[in-house]
Specification:
Elements (H helix, E strand, L loop, with lengths): L5 E7 L2 E8 L2 E9 L10 H14 L18 H13 L6 E2 H7 L6 H9 L12 E2 L13 H11 L11
Parallel strand pairs: 4-5
Antiparallel strand pairs: 1-2, 2-3
């Protein structure tokens, strides 16, 4: 991954979303619990995403604004999985790792999908929190805040509640 030339922080309580850009292309994002931070010096894309984040935490169904993402260099399967998740699992819906593998055209690749979710460079914008275990259980979430944050994101979306938690 390239080194970011611009990092900006979006805050809409209770969430903070940090964006890393290079030449107007989104390299990555990090979602976490907000801790009193305030956004400063936002780009035009950052302001658009902040408005979406504010609607999101208000419980509105949000189609995240499309911004250029650094997909170059990702394996084809990884791109298919990330884009299938972004484009085919809407706000308030969940899927399983196996279900996402099928959506990406590779039934039976649930474990590989799990690995991709663990390395998702754009959490929230590519909503890996919507992916659950085969039994509906809340499973690993690599963002700061782990399963508590995953649960919060699903609650904000009023998504179907998972059956159980497992690490």
């Amino acid at each position: 991954m390239r080194i970011a030339d611009k990092t900006e922080l979006l805050v809409a309580w209770p969430l903070a979303l940090e964006l890393s850009w290079h030449n107007g292309v989104l390299l990555g994002s990090r979602v976490r619990h907000a801790r009193g931070q305030v956004p400063t010096g936002l780009t035009a894309a950052g302001r658009t995403l902040l408005a979406a984040l504010e609607r999101y935490v208000d419980g509105q169904a949000v189609a995240w604004p499309r911004v250029p993402m650094e997909l170059h260099g990702l394996p084809e399967f990884t791109r298919r999985v990330l884009l299938a998740l972004r484009d085919r699992v809407p706000h308030g819906a969940t899927t399983t790792y196996g279900g996402l593998a099928t959506l990406a055209g590779s039934p039976g690749a649930a474990r590989a999908v799990g690995q991709i979710m663990a390395r998702n460079p754009w959490p929230l914008l590519v909503p890996c929190h919507r992916v659950l275990g085969a039994d509906g259980a809340l499973t690993g979430f690599s963002a700061e805040g782990g399963l508590d944050l995953k649960r919060l994101l699903l609650e904000i979306e009023n998504a179907a509640q998972p059956v159980a938690c497992r690490v």
